[in-house]
Amino acid sequence: xxxxxxxxxxxxxxxxxxxxxxxxxxxxxxxxxxxxxxxxxxxxxxxxxxxxxxxxxxxxxxxxxxxxxxxxxxxxxxxxxxxxxxxxxxxxxxxxxxxxxxxxxxxxxxxxxxxxxxxxxxxxxxxxxxxxxxxxxxxxxxxxxxxxxxxxxxxxxxxxxxxxxxxxxxxxxxxxxxxxxxxxxxxxxxxxxxxxxxxxxxxxxxxxxxxxxxxxxxxxxxxxxxxxxxxxxxxxxxxxxxxxxxxxxxxxxxxxxxxxxxxxxxxxxxxxxxxxxxxxxxxxxxxxxxxxxxxxxxxxxxxxxxxxxxxxxxxxxxxxxxxxxxxxxxxxxxxxxxxxxxxxxxxxxxxxxxxxxxxxxxxxxxxxxxxxxxxxxxxxxxxxxxxxxxxxxxxxxxxxxxxxxxxxxxxxxxxxxxxxxxxxxxxxxxxxxxxxxxxxxxxxxxxxxxxxxxxxxx
Length: 458
Hints:
Elements: H1 5-28, H2 30-45, H3 62-88, H4 95-109, H5 117-140, H6 144-171, H7 173-176, H8 191-211, H9 214-234, H10 237-253, H11 257-276, E1 285-287, E2 290-292, H12 299-312, H13 350-377, H14 383-399, H15 414-433, H16 450-453
Antiparallel strand pairs: 1-2
């Protein structure tokens, strides 16, 4: 803690100056905002000293507050960008974005009745920052050039995170391996979070490999190889399975059914060899004294307790994103009961988490906001962009059944989901405005022209 007033004033002044410069840069070039938001989870991760005890990675540090400052800066840049563009031309927001904004307002109101008001307040602010960031994205993302710049910013943020996780593996095993075991968690402190990051990164890396220049192809291939290796070492069963489902979704969306059949046969062969030669040790979980690939690892107990709590306040909920704080109930405390009662602990079901947070009313608002563009995107005529959107969103929805796969930006896997979501809204508005034939992304320069797409948000 700084006690010298002069040093404190200098520190605050430097922070304000740096923040102002970053905000100016982020507004002028919005891809900087995207890059910063995508990297924001690493800010809190690097300030955690060790992960050798359960819950150590969940401790609030100065990094947590710095991350909130960064996402607030990105949210402010988003609002400024939105109002700048709105001042130039009338910009109407699509229904899903309005519903998400309504969900954000309800999250703020829930602070009043939250069982952990402090956590709800901080996380509601982060949610509002995310929504503001998405407002700016929607208004800004109006040309092919900007779409390419958005995907480039996302690609380079993923590249940097892959490098950081690789360095953690090489130089700091205490951080990289979960509780000193055989499951790789990288800088995130959780193998499942590392798995989620890998799962949502593959589509971006493939797009770069498929449509980038030679340097981009080599970069994406090397990054993908590193990421697949790290993903396998996580032993994260759910994210590996969902990744395989995502491959099927991609081929179906691009109508490459023969490739799907070939890849399916290859994966079956690899799975058989892995099981035959005992290559799945890190994927097994010990339950009742025996190791198994299929055990829920106590999640069924979590879900039973969660349903009991939900039944007692089904419409209002217990406050935005309070998560495991519901286990403060005396029925779930003491030895042998669930995990530690803390808002930082997961309920291992993202949909339950939304219901616990804001009740069925809030959950239905959120569900409508995310499902509407997802359902409509299946008919987008742009093969690879459609595949990119459906693969990421389908995977996140499935993973949300056993983990918190769709968050407010706190995890590295959150931003790729929301970027895919906002891209879907922009493309759907394009489709409604202009009748376009089906096309591969190679040909999209022919139909996403600045003069054609400039008015898609009017």
